[in-house]
Amino acid sequence: MGRLNDETIDHLADQTDHLTDRALKHVERNPAIPRLRHCLAVVETLAERLALAEFCLKRCLSYEVYEDLLDETGLAY
């Protein structure tokens, strides 16, 4: 096995950059990625709504107060 010189290291770095760029382009073109991002956003919103509902239930607040809080926080549908 040969020694690593500056030229070989530069070549390996270029190849690594090239492979990284190709992988990123593949991920960006993958149709599942936008769907996964959307699903994650929906799950995060539902988790925030659930936390807000739990907050209201623990404090015996009315449903109207819950709806007002949803509107104020931007979590309303």
Structural features, described:
This protein is mostly helical and 77 residues long. The protein has a domain of 33 residues. Helices cover 81% and strands 0% of the residues. Helix 2 packs across helix 3. It is rod-shaped and about 75 Å long. It starts with 5 loop residues before the first helix and ends with a helix.
How much of the sequence lies in strands comes to: under 5%
Based on helices, strands and strand pairing, what is the structural class?
Answer: mainly alpha
Helix content: over 70%
Write down the overall geometry.
rod-shaped
Which key terms come to mind for this protein?
mainly alpha; 77 residues; single chain
Helices and strands in order:
Layout lengths: L5 H24 L2 H27 L4 H11 L4
Helix pairs in contact: 2-3
Give a summary of the structure in a few sentences.
The chain is an all-alpha fold. It is built from 3 helices and no strands.
